[in-house]
Structure formats: structure tokens, C-alpha cells
Amino acid sequence: MSLAVLIVLYRKASQDSIALQSLLAQQALLRDEGIDLQLYVWNNSPGVAQPCPGVRWYEADNQRLSVVYNQVAEQAFAAGVDLFMISDDDTNYSDVSLSHCLEQIQQVLNTHDGNQVGVYLPMMVSNNQLVSPGARWQFKGRLTPSVTPGVVPSKNLVGINSGLIFTKACYQRMSPFYDERLRFYATDSNFFIRYEEVFPKACVLDVMIAHDLSEHSADTPARALFRFEEMVFGLRISFESHSLAIRGLLNAYLLYAAVRKAVAYRRLSFLKALFVTRELAK
């Protein structure tokens, strides 16, 4: 079985990426087990990192993640890989058995659920809290305290991009994976909203992976505003074809969220963001 993994670097040297270094350490061991682990690195801050041996190297100056994911997925599947995985540069695979993950995937593929599953999600943990997979009610996502590994319904399922594994069948039926109007945030939630319309099920892998989630970091007002704008823009794109009632509820929710942010950060710019992103989403 062949697995291509894309690691996106941003303002980080190759040797400082725990994701890249921990995967490079597994590459030779997996080869001995008959697993072809192909590493693709996209450097989103040219000049900070230099190409390293054993990887396919790409770079551009802060390219949209949606474009990066789609471009590399296309090239990886065109090269004949069976599975494609996305990783942030700070996800740690040191204690992860990729061969065990692939065994679980193969087991599902060999069952009647195999053609109903297009993505496999590891359990991602940040600060001792499960951050993926999670659940969604309409446009509101929420964390879940625990999840049972195995095949699960895709309805209202969400997960973060890092660690997500796509099958070739998923690529054939959903390519491109990501809406390229989106830049950095909301790419994952948009994908899963589309995914549930194509595949009735997904699979949660019986593995826990340590991940440094940026949402758990303290935000400056400027950073918080950027994240809020991205969230608003992403939700409006994700629900642009839904009913008028759902879009009305979404706008009410966004107004509520903007007021809370404006009060918390004492900045009217969060309210203004509702009108700026409305124009961008048209």
C-alpha cells in the first residue's frame, strides 16, 4: 500500500518541524514492511526552510491552503498512490504506528462499508483534549469529550485537516477536495459539509495523535479578527446553496458572534467584518 503525506511548513525550518522529522524517521521502517510512504512538503514561507532529502518539495509565498491541498492531492493520486494524508508541521507522529493505521484502513476497505467510506480520521488531541473528530449542528461545530473508533455516519461529522486520510475513491468522486475561494480557516468544515452529501460514512481510526491546535493559543486582537473574518467567509460559502431559513439563522448567529467578539476585544471591526465578508462571499 502507498501513502502520500503532505506537510505544510509555515515560518519553520525543515529540521524544526516535528511532523516532517517524525515521518522521515518512519519512512525506512515502513519500507521494510512493504509500505511506500511518500512525503510531500509545501513550504509556504520561501527562504525560511530549505529542501531536504527524501521529500518532494514545493513552495510559494503563503499560498491558500485550499489550493495547496488540491494541487498536491492531484499530483499524488496521478502518481498512483492509494491514500493521501494532510499534516500541519506541528503534528507529532513519533508515537504513531502508521502501519497499524493502514491495517485498519485495509480492514474497512475489505468490508461492505469500504465503498461508503472516503476519509479516515485519527483522534487528534491538543492540551489533553480531543479536538478531532467533532460534531456539527447546522453551522455550529462543537468538540466531543470522546469518540468510539470505527465506521461512523458522516452526517454532521467534522474534523480538522491535519491527520485526515483520503482514499482514491474520495478523490475520484469529490475532486477538488477543497473550495479554492477559502484561504486558511474553514477549509475543513466546508469539506465535511460537502462530504456527507457524497459518502454516507467515515471511519475514526483507533489512534491518538498529539497536535498543537492554534485555537488554544492566545490571540492578539488582529489575529482574532483575521480568524473571525475567515470563519464568517467560510460559513457563508459553505451554506450559500442552503435554504433561505438556514441562511437567515446563520446571519443571526454571525451577528451574535460578532457582538460577543466586539465586546470582548473592544473593537467594532468585528461588526464591520460581517459586511466585508458578505461582499467577498458573493
Polypeptide structure, described:
The strands form 2 sheets. Strands 1, 2, 3, 4, 5, 6, 9, 11 and 12 form a 9-stranded mixed β-sheet that branches. The protein has 2 domains: 2-212, Spore Coat Polysaccharide Biosynthesis Protein SpsA, Chain A (Alpha-Beta Complex), CATH 3.90.550; 218-280, no CATH class. With 282 residues, the chain is α/β, with parallel strands linked by helices. It has helices spanning 18-32, 65-78, 98-109, 168-174, 187-195, 221-238, 244-265, 269-280, and strands at 2-9, 36-43, 55-59, 83-88, 117-126, 129-132, 134-137, 140-142, 150-153, 157-158, 165-167, 201-210. The model has no long low-confidence stretch (mean pLDDT 89). Strand 7 (134-137) and strand 8 (140-142) form a beta hairpin. 39% of the residues lie in helices and 24% in strands. The chain is built from 8 helices and 12 strands.
- State the CATH superfamily name of the largest domain: Spore Coat Polysaccharide Biosynthesis Protein SpsA, Chain A
The overall pLDDT average reads 89
Number of helices: 8
**Major β-sheet annotation:** 9 strands, mixed
Distance between the termini: 43 Å
The outline comes out as globular
Number of domains: 2
Rg over CA atoms: 19 Å
Helicity range of the residues?
25-40%
SSE arrangement:
Blueprint: E1 2-9, H1 18-32, E2 36-43, E3 55-59, H2 65-78, E4 83-88, H3 98-109, E5 117-126, E6 129-132, E7 134-137, E8 140-142, E9 150-153, E10 157-158, E11 165-167, H4 168-174, H5 187-195, E12 201-210, H6 221-238, H7 244-265, H8 269-280
